Amino acid sequence: MKIQFCGAAQTVTGSQHLLEINGKKILLDCGMSQGKREESFQINRHFLFDPAELHCVILSHAHIDHAGNLPTLYAKGFTGRIYCTSATRDLCSIMLQDSAYIQEKDTEFVNKRRAKRHEPLFNPLYTIEDARGVLECFEAFPYNKKIFIDGLDNKVEVTFIEAGHILGSSQVLLDIEENGKKFILGFTGDLGRYHLPILKDPDFLGNVDILLSESTYGGRTHHNAEMIESELEATVKEAIEAGGKIIVPSFSVGRTQELVYALTELETAGKIPKFPIFVDSPLTVNATDVFKLHPECFDKETSDYLASGVNVFGLDNVEYIKDVNDSKKLNEFKGTCMIISASGMCEAGRILHHLANNISNNKNVIMIIGFMAENTLGRRIVEAKDTPGTKVKIFGEEHKVKAKIRVLNAFSGHADQNELIAYLNKFDKNILKKLFLVHGELEGQKILEGELRKSGFKNIFIPKRGEGYNI
Fold first, then answer.
1. HSE (CB half, 13 Å, CA atoms) of 95?
2. Any idea what DSSP says for residue 283?
3. pLDDT in tens, 50-90
4. Cβ distance 364 to 401 under 8 Å?
5. pLDDT tens figures, 92-110
6. Is 2 helix (H, G, I), strand (E, B) or coil?
7. Quick check: 449 and 437 in contact, CB under 8 A?
8. In sequence order, which residues have a C-beta less than 8 Å from that of residue 431 and are 6 or more positions away?
9. CA distance 30 to 17
10. Strand order in 277-280's β-sheet?
11. Which residues contact 325 (CB under 8 A, 6 or more apart)?
12. Which among 134, 233, 245, 415 has most CB atoms closer than 10 A?
């Protein structure tokens, strides 16, 4: 067996890991790269393999950095199956079309300016038709059920294990027989945290011979998940006192629902006053409907809330916005409100317009509740936290960062360094032959590697993009 790391190698976006088993090529995830615009543009358009040669894709979850480049794969000749959980399929059915729509609209917006300057025009990465086409390849399965991958003579079985990251997120377990030998490969996908609202906690994969582990927060620790409400309460009260707006870049799937859930709990308990909350993302509206279709993914607390009649996805002061004209009207809103909008790393979508209109007002708060990858606008905003007045570019124009930047890392949906080490220590080190750290920035990965070696792990690898290994 061969493994080639085609994305999310010493970075946290563009997850793609190519396996060659018994002469067949299997891709774990097909994420979109985000970061430096021109570099990401080229990476997303040019795969390190021929999509037409892929036998199938195994998808860990629906986030764009793991599933967002599937339409490009399809447009370039992929015709195989995409294996995933039921909730992942349902989320991808809206997320991939939404991604294509945003690309088309953002390209149209930018091209109007480029045309005035007589500059070359851009094309979107893929179209809505490409997104709809790849959806026909999806095959969904429940958690914890072994499935033989078609066309491999019953030599490869896949099992999806709860990852606790977003709705439908899974770790991937592959039971493989090759040349008469049997071994087990595990892939954590994005590993969630324990005790977060709404979703079940991550399950243990079980012992494996080879493990691909995410390492997003390999060099950092979070505040306890129990601090979510106290951090959120303080930020809301700060904005209300200043009379400003709270602008929240957020992933439409997972993080937004968790935020609305936490706001609902605070308001119900009387810890914050009722104030207008706008969820400005057509995708979020649809994603929240998908959440309601998958109670099998909820933890006991959320299930009990729903059974008692509590609307965990928002009280009557939470308004979900679809129409673009209603979105534009938010620019004229006076007084305190919260605007939650995608994308989570501030790379596309309506959040760019809200940031452009609000980031230079010192009454406002930009509330960061998720990981911001290197070279994204979101990372530049986080880095401006301690240097007010820093300029950031939005739609090619500079804006001074005068708004207060508040980073609530208790909201993170990724396991931190301590949580990763605790999880990985469950594996039998005598059985685990190779551990690959993926989906992390190199500095943090090296810190995690050092801590794991102290715990007795050997044969730890931090692959570069394009690097391959024979197993």
1. 28
2. H
3. 999 999 999 999 999 999 999 999 999 999 999 999 999 99
4. no
5. 999 999 889 888 887 887 7
6. strand
7. yes
8. 207, 208, 209
9. 8
10. 318-321, 277-280, 338-341, 246-249, 365-368, 404-407
11. none
12. 415
Six-digit token pair at 247? 């602008």
| Token couple for 242 | 């200043």
- For 393, the 3-state DSSP assignment is strand
Write the CB contacts of 243 (distance below 8 Å, at least 6 apart in sequence). Answer: 335, 336, 363
CA–CA distances in Å: residue 409 to residues 80, 225, 265, 370: 38, 9, 19, 7
- What is the residue type of 131? A
Tell me which amino acid residue 91 is. Answer: L
Enter the tokens of residue 404.
């207060």
Tell me if 180 sits within 8 A of 173, measured CB to CB: no
Strands 170-178 and 246-249, sheet pairing: unpaired
In whole angstroms, what is the distance from residue 109 CA to residue 235 CA?
Answer: 33
Q: Which two tokens stand for residue 178?
A: 């090759």
Domains of the chain: 2-220+413-470 (3.60.15.10), 226-411 (3.40.50.10890)
Query: Residue 282 is encoded by which pair of tokens?
Result: 């057509």
pTM given for the model: 0.83
Question: How many residues make up the chain in this entry?
Answer: 471
Among candidate residues 131, 30, 44, 45, the one with its CA nearest the CA of residue 84: 30
Strand pairing class (138-141; 81-85): parallel
